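Hi C.,

You asked whether I'd gotten around to modeling the 847-residue construct. I have! Everything is below, sequence then structure, no commentary in between.
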Amino acid sequence: MNGILADYYSKAVERAKTMVMDDIDKYLETKEDIPSYEQYIRERGQFIGQIWLNAWLNATSSHASINEKVSYLTSKGFDVEGVKRKLINQMFRNEIREEEPFDAICWLDTKFLIQKEVWVQRYKKVRESYLCKKAIQIERESKRKLFLKLEYHIEQLLGEYYEEFYLYIRFLLGSQLAIEIEKQGVIQPMEDVTFSSYLYDEQESAYHNYRFVEEITEKYERLISTYLFDFGPNWLKNHLPSNLFDEYKESFGKLLSIDILKEVSFESFDDLSYEIFEDLLNELMTDLIKLIDIPFDLEKHREIFNQDIMERKRKEIEEQEKRQRQKEEEERRKEEEKRMIEDIFGMEYSPPPGRNIQYILHVGETNTGKTFQAIENMKAAKSGIYLAPLRLLAFEIYDKLNEEGVPCSLKTGEEEKVVTDATHFSCTIEMFHEKDYYDVVVIDEAQMLADKDRGFSWYKAITKAKAKEVHIICSFNAKLMILDLLGESDVDVFEYRRDIPLEVEQHLFRLNDTRKGDALVCFSRRQVLETASELQRGKRKVSMIYGSMPPETRKKQMQRFLNGETTVIVATDAIGMGLNLPIRRIVFLENEKFDGTRRRRLTSQEVKQIAGRAGRKGIYDVGKVAFYSDPKTMGRLLEQEDQALHGFAIAPTTGVLEKFQKYSRHLGLFFYLWDKFKIPEGTKKAPLSEEKLLYEMIEGTIVEAKLSLTDLYGFLHLPFSTNEPTLRVQWKQKLEAIVAGEEIPDPIIKESGLEELELSYKSIGLHLLFLYKLGRATEAQYWERIREEISDKIHDQLKSGIQVARKVCKSCGKDLPLKYRFNLCDDCFYEKRSRKYQFNEWELRLK
């Protein structure tokens, strides 16, 4: 034996001897008669040789280090320098197979062949041990089978007598619940309340009253388990077959005790507890808690339980029938609702296929003269009406026609100016009446047809107008929508292009860049006033235009600009609709606006509508456009082609309201049906949010009871600023006075500041809406004069200069630019930061 592996060889020999002796024991223990040693060698000799090889290979290959393997191979004459470990292991394993093996059989001969009595003694010892272990296994298997038999009989019994267990547990639980409810001292409604609902309500009550309680469900699950384990094992002892007790005593030498029964039946009772609890959850609390007054007798409680089941089934049948009736009623209601909607709305909003009217469509960009051409046609006709989107535009055309010798009356919701012998009218679009006839009708800004709130007024004017000619003025993106609406009618289309080009300035605009002829555009009244105030402090003369400004004031502000009294206009996007002014440059101070739902970037059409006001032929032959930020992106919006508008707006008509009155006078139902109404394809439904807001104020009151539905809807539809709470209150007070037969309250007038003056103007406007609706035109003339005085005061305040809160540095008080984002000026910010760094440096030095 190579000296390098001598130690491993010795260990392999010992391991082989042990394994051979184990093999002899396994061989002998199963033999009923003792075999001879020679017989063992004949049968197991080959395997004994394999035992040695396995022991030797395991001792060396697995335990010898790589250095020992290399030394061994080198001693055998192998050159293994640079050879990989894997190959070394393989060469080593092959070589050690050639080592002289341990002669295990020779070793066995010395132990057993010569000493026969040793072989006999070994057999006796191994056989005795084997028989002892086998007897223990047989005994264990016998006991296991007995326990399985016990478990089987227990499960069969619990299933067979489930009702008895259930009724007894039902009695115990019901008594416990009755005691707990009485202790609470609170009488709870238990009618039709199930045990499940009771548990849920109790848990919720504890949670909402900030009381800590254990999980209610787990509490009662444990309670039922306790009941079962208290009496269950004794019950089993009296019901299990007697032979099981005999078998147990025979197998274990002792009686089957209650403790053993508890152990064997634990899982069965646990499962039974869960089943009983699940069934109890569906029980009514009234059925459970009444059991406390009925001593437990199995037959009596079975009778009560069966009665309770029958009563519960009866109620379930009644409930099912009730649900079925409700379902049928709901289906009938839906069918009736569907029929009502079809009858009320029906074909009301289907565009006419064609009309025997000459339509002239004036399509063009802003400031291209399209409105001028339409008005010229109207002036030449015997009678005509101009329909404007804004009171200001209606005023403008009213003044223009009268100045040019064409008698024209004015009619908006808030004023009527009747001119003697006038055959022409200038009105806001909402004042259109489909029964009136004119030679020429002019409908301005018809792209508003797609506006979800006001668009229906344009739809009604376009489709219901009675005239020889109807002139429709719109932007390019509304052209296809209007042509589709007109269907097969005779339509002439005239397109208008700008003679004056627009030029986008690439550099960013700053407020001190403002020059004569500029119009600065932002998207809130506050921003207009702040910007104007900033410019006025810089000694600039400014005109202002914003949506809530009185039309008379707006007209005077425009006139000041036209007369050269002011050199700059600051306006909201109201400037983009129909206002013709000599503007050199349009400046966008903001690129976003709030559209009533969210703040979003301006659309291409909005940019074009506003920017189109720049330039005036003969004055400014190039219109300039500038931006406060991102001029490249905004410039691209100005150049890109607009997406075509789709979907005109619809709203309730007089005909719709008349049809609805056949079914109900309740406007709440009408609004419900309107929301349910599936609008025709290609239309938009007016949300009626303002009407609903006002209706909520008078729903169910004497106002709704006394006014006819048509009159009430007319008052809901009055065009005033419903977003002003004080105006909504005045609106309600006037209606209450009308139905009470009293004089309607005068408008509230306050003059301490610009905002109060503007609100007073709106308050008088609301009062005028009521007066004209009630036919009290003479009284209205007085309030129109008062409103004009308010308008003059607003104009005087704007003319004298706006004082808004200055934005100043909170540290030094220095004025900050209007659009400055921070509360500290740059100097104070850097000084503060410098002090902070110095402090940190001193702190580090001190450390």
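If it helps when you're writing up: Residues 497 and 622 are 14 Å apart (CA to CA).

Thanks,
B.
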